[in-house]
Amino acid sequence: MLRLNGRGSTECRAIGRARIVRSFSDLLEFAPRPEIRPFWRQTGADADPGNVVAVLLGPHNLTLDDMPATVVAIVTESHLVRGSERPVRSPCPIVDCVGPAAQDIQDGDLVLVNGGQASVWVNPTARMVNAFQRSDSAGRFHLDYEHQPVRLPDGRPIRVDALVADGDRIASYLSEGPDGFVLTSYRLEEIESVVSGAHGKPVALPAECGSDWAGAAARSAALSDMTALLRSVTSGYGPLDLRADLDVAADELAAEGTRAGRVRVGVWMEEGSIDPAAVLTPGLERAFLRASTLTSDWLEEAILAAKSVLVPASVHAEDADPSDAKIVIDLGVAGIVVQSPQVQSWKQALRSVALRA
Q1: Which residue among 81, 148, 160, 232 has the highest number of C-beta atoms inside a 10 angstrom radius?
Q2: pTM of the prediction?
């Protein structure tokens, strides 16, 4: 952890990932707001693309007016020309004249900026971040060990997602440390509050037909990584139809000036009710496979099909428990979906098996 001091302005604070800026051309690389990448591909600075702390180094010749909307705070090596005030933006904490120490900040570092105290904390501790976030609900960084995904020796992550029966319960399950949430039911009017309540963690939920649902989903996807799950891909409404409705909704929201995100299209497949080959249906980006046991032939076929088209698959087995961690790793899946109270037991078991590999 590194602390820097400079000259502060505005009595507010912000937290985000550092982006080094030496000229105006560097700003073009992250404005407008970059699309959130699939969570299984996120690394370093990609993990929180919507919360950027601009770190201005050298003779950049930039002013506050040059900063894109994704910038939540500014740290500068030398003086920053404030420019005109823009009422459309919320107060942005600025700490300038930090000096050469600003060059110690690297792209992707987590940075907490306190304008009132004129201080900058680089890679703060989990306790500091949690203390800050108790009074800030716009976004959340999960640094505590229990929130970290399991990684195998080769670097491959295995996610442990929580199965949630009611959207109202996501907030209470957050402290269990799941890597994401898979909802089985919710109400249309609560979809945005459900995704917001996940505090940036991925959410997968059943898809519905209709423009009202597509619009609500597109708005919600601006808050977090979101996957819409079809229950069937063989009916008259398939992945490509859902993709088209979501894209139309996003375009309409953009035309209205409303922020929208890209919803991923996935499928929830249950053993005995759908052919394993259904995962090969064009347009699918994610698969959740529910089977009676982790060793079922149906599950093996579905996983192999998903791998053949590079569709990340997570599994949920009714009789699975943490003692089956090695089976999950050997299956080569992207993750497992479990009941919320079992999240940490599964993470511990998966890490133990990974260490012995």
Answers
A1: 160
A2: 0.65
Phi, psi of 300 (to 5 degrees): -60, -45
Structure tokens, 307: 């791998």
> Would you call 331 helix, strand, or coil by DSSP?
helix
SS (H, E, C) 268-322: EEECCCCCHHHHHCCCCCEEEEEECCCCCHHHHHHHHHHHHCCCCEEEEECCCCH
Q: What is the CATH number of domain 2-133?
A: 3.50.30.10
Question: DSSP secondary structure string, 132-180?
Answer: HHTT--S-----SGGGSPEE-TTS-EEEEEEEES-GGGHHHHGGG--SE
Residue 237's pLDDT is: 85
Task: For residue 233, name the pLDDT band (cuts at 50, 70, 90).
Answer: confident
Distance (Å, whole) CA 263 – CA 146 = 27
Domains of the chain, residue spans: 2-133, 145-356
What class has domain 145-356? Answer: alpha beta
Q: Please, which residues have CB within 8 angstroms of residue 195's CB and are 6 or more apart in sequence?
A: 203, 220, 221, 223, 224, 226
Confidence band (pLDDT; 50, 70, 90) for 52? confident
Nearest 5°: the CA angle 53, 36, 29 is: 50
